[in-house]
Amino acid sequence: MGNYCNKPVAHVSPASFVGIGSTKSQNKAKQNSNSSELKADVQTSAPNVDKSISNNLKSFTFNDLKEATKNFRQENLIGEGGFGFVIKGWIDENTYAPTKPGTGIVVAIKKLKPESFQGHKQWLAEVNYLGKLHHENLVKLIGYCSDGKNRLLVYEFMQKGSLENHLFRKGVQPIPWVRRVNIAIDVAKGVAFLHALDANVIYRDLKASNILLDPDFNAKLSDFGLARDGPTGDNTHVSTTVIGTHGYAAPEYVATGHLTPKSDVYSFGVVLLELLTGRRVVEDERIGFSEKTLVDWAWPFLSDTRRILRIMDARLGGQYSKKGAQAVAALTLQCLDIDPKLRPSMVNVVAALEALGSSNSIPRTPKCENHATKHSSHSQKSAGNSNIL
């Protein structure tokens, strides 16, 4: 395993979409985007929906979706962000015609701001990827609307919302350890599926708010607006405008703009760390966290099996396997390796997690362990400041 540099790495973070099934995102991470570069990227590389759109998708009119949402009634709002908003609607299960609230099936409808060139490009990407890709761990795109300046997407409704809300929102029942491992397996399978495609699709926006949960807490990836085809032939990477979310983006991608499937592996490692600790990737309000990511803070604990239990989510109440937690921490460490070549493939990640998930032994951790260790007591100011692009 390669050595990890404890100096904070640079990350870039444009305004991110809120998860389809989540409530308003509470992530207060610092965000920034290079709009001029992104605009140029949109103008030169936006796909042509008319030529490549899947016949499996329903083409809705704007009036259809106005009726399905009762004119986008505020009380049905699921989430919103710089892109626009997501709202609940009701359609017939067979014909997809709009129905009255409480009848038919519930769907999540994302409406983009007409003036958002960034949102338009991501709308195109979602239609093209989710219109063609089908997997049990990818959210289902039912249809779209391209009516004048109106751009909307219609998805299956994920009743339990986002992983982000279940991990970090106050007043929400904590996710048990076994369920966290199963969620990690689901997410890993979804990403592994993308990487195994001929196009070698790179998700590029793996984070807790983009992981949605169904009524049984099965996890699915949502928001494919930043997805890109991976390198082909002799190419080792694709070069692209650096865009993503602070704390989740792989350091080599942020530094060079070189995107590979191993960039997703790093982001997955961050999600694993959030599942372990119950902490956000960036917590600006905590002393010592202003310029420090969760990875920076947790690294000394991850690399010492004797100390990993000190940063486990206190809300678990000690109800987890000590060996299981150490195994997940070891896998997290591999995924976060500073050298992308030393990170495991997602296929291997799935295998490792499934082996862990098959274990029926979930003993309590020793009561002497301090599960409520505060981050601030272990945070040290880094010699260098993270560089937010």
Give structural notes.
Residues 379-389 have a biased composition (Polar residues). With 389 residues, this protein is of the alpha+beta class. It has 2 domains: 35-156, 2-Layer Sandwich (Phosphorylase Kinase, domain 1); 161-377, Transferase(Phosphotransferase) domain 1 (Transferase(Phosphotransferase), domain 1, Orthogonal Bundle). It is built from 11 helices and 11 strands. It has helices at 35-45, 49-52, 62-68, 117-130, 163-168, 177-196, 251-256, 261-277, 294-302, 322-335, 346-357, and strands spanning 58-59, 77-81, 84-91, 105-112, 141-147, 150-156, 161-162, 211-213, 219-221, 238-239, 258-259. A hairpin with a 2-residue loop joins strand 5 and strand 6.
Distance between the termini: 28 Å
Q: Reading side by side through the largest sheet, how are the strands ordered?
A: 1-5-6-4-3-2
**Into which percent range does the helicity of residues fall?**
25-40%
CATH architecture of the largest domain: Orthogonal Bundle
Please tell me the total number of domains: 2
Q: What distinguishing features does this structure have?
A:
389 residues; alpha+beta; Phosphorylase Kinase, domain 1; Transferase(Phosphotransferase), domain 1; 2 domains; 6-stranded mixed β-sheet; 3-stranded antiparallel β-sheet; 11 helices; 11 strands; 31% helix; globular; disordered N terminus; disordered C terminus; signal
